[in-house]
Amino acid sequence: MSAALQMTAFGLALLSTLFLLLATCTDCWMVNADDSLEVSHKCRGLWRECVTNMQDGVRTCDQYDSILADHPVKIVVTRTLMITADLLAGLALATLVLGLDCIKLLKEDPCVKLKMCYGAGVILSIGSVLGLVGSVWYAVDVYVERSMLVSHNIFLGVHYDFGWSCWLGMAGSTGCLVASVLLTCCLY
Fold first, then answer.
1. I need a labelling partner for 87 at 20 to 30 A (CA). Which of 14, 55, 57, 113 fits?
2. Are the CB atoms for 16 and 89 separated by under 8 Å?
3. Which residues cross the membrane (predicted)?
4. DSSP 106
5. d(CA 58, CA 52)
6. What is the DSSP letter of 102?
7. Which strands, in side-by-side order, build the sheet including 30-33?
8. For 3-28+71-186, CATH number?
9. What distance, in Å, lies between the first and last C-alpha atoms of the chain?
10. What is the pLDDT of residue 67?
11. Residues 166 and 121 sit within 8 Å (Cβ to Cβ)
């Protein structure tokens, strides 16, 4: 039972870590259309902003000036939290691989392997919380930005939505949290 639970947690952690990495690297955290005719489709991300012309499908992207330049708080905080979550999830995944029962490293000491799995679960839970906070922080800021435009009657056909990168970040963080619960609570 323990080996099956470990492999399930490993598979879920691997998939969720890939989701977190994709969410961090991709550029569609906030989606808006410039007008009601939907001539263009704009995606804003953590690293650049891309506009797709809906008529011919041509996509152009503008990189943000510099990582060190002044950026909105939502971008800086989300970048920081997502990169930290990626690093912690990767560390947890490496620790979990070494702690799996099917790996021959430290095979003579199962107590150490169990502690490695438990430690991987704790690290994964910290990374998942950081990823959730980063994703939800960005989503709430998008919602507040849209609400401010609506409340000031500046809402002239601009439509803000959460992009697929934001949803991917939330899904990856939630998957990491579930994997950490499997490793910390159910493994003993």
1. 113
2. yes
3. 118-140, 162-187
4. T
5. 6
6. T
7. 59-63, 48-53, 40-44, 30-33, 159-162
8. 1.20.140.150
9. 11
10. 65
11. no
